[in-house]
User: Fold this.
Amino acid sequence: MAGYGDRDAVIVEAVRTPIGKGKANGGLHDVLPVDLLAHSLREVVTRSGINPEQVDDVIAGAVTQVGDQAVNIARNALLGAGFPESVPGTTVDRQCGSSQQAIHFAAQGVISGAYDIVVAAGVESMSRVPMGSSVLPGSDPFGAMAQRYPEGLVPQGISAELMAAKWGFSRQQLDEFSAGSHEKAAQATKEGLFDRELAPIAGLSTDEIIRPGTTVQTLAGLKPAFYNPAYEARFPQIQWEITPGNSSPLSDGSAAVLITSGATARRLGLPPLARIHTTTVVGSDPLYMLTGVIPATEKVLKRAGLSLADIDLFEVNEAFAPVVLAWAEDTGADLAKTNVNGGAIAIGHPLGASGARIMTTLVNALEQRGGRYALQTMCEGGGMANAIIIERL
Assistant:
């Protein structure tokens, strides 16, 4: 295994809540998102054994920062978790990659010497704070940007349809991938592969959305989720193949990752799980807004001086099935090494929490499988993507 330097950023602990259905009947609906995040913050510090007064900052991702998720949820949650008042917190929004960006910011702060101990986290309660509810009636969040795209941009579901059409994926291919996600996640749950990372809450001890026994035949009965006749003339290539079964579901959850400098980990006797090797973020076409994972993967590998063959595990957020399939086709990555314990189609995609949730799952999977390098990447609204490479220690 690799060593690490004094100013390397290392992950010493990572936890997440089980992921609940993002609906009023979901297992986490009655938990305020600030308390959901507080649970992961409290748990990650308790499991590590550090004193929370040693934390230099808490950086948390949250996408829909309105209502129950307003007013800097990171600060409110850390105080709710019992951290000392001296610990600051800030909330970031890079759309679906918000808490992966929190991890990037945390690592960059450690490497620069600004932090010794920092928590990167994320939360989203899509059952309590519906996606898009921060755009108020009569508001215009785009302004002059709209003039640059006079034909108009589209919702993510339409972008997913455009990807499926451009890469020529059939409904059968999309549903086969999605059924496989459920199969892998159900098997990982059965084998206890998630046990170490889970912090049960509100009576929920396992992920609620995974459907064991999901087949291509059952998925084939689902109707297109984003059909809109208004787009038919503009995009005649769309075949309307994106359904609730090959998309990530509405979800509730939180996750937290504790990151320290190498010197701090040694001083406190904290065994690192992984070193944050390389990070990057890219912009991409905001119409095909989900394609950024492709250039992000290429950029982070080049920056790291590594090749696809060096990577033992990949995590590519399953916002929609064509995202991962197009990524694999264009990069040449091995799908057998990708989302090995299932992905967001099965486990769920609580927007602001997903980056930290995926990292928590990835760092444990890397250890369980004895690999060295892992790469995580996420597509993001507006046409962006984060990518990160970690190295097991």
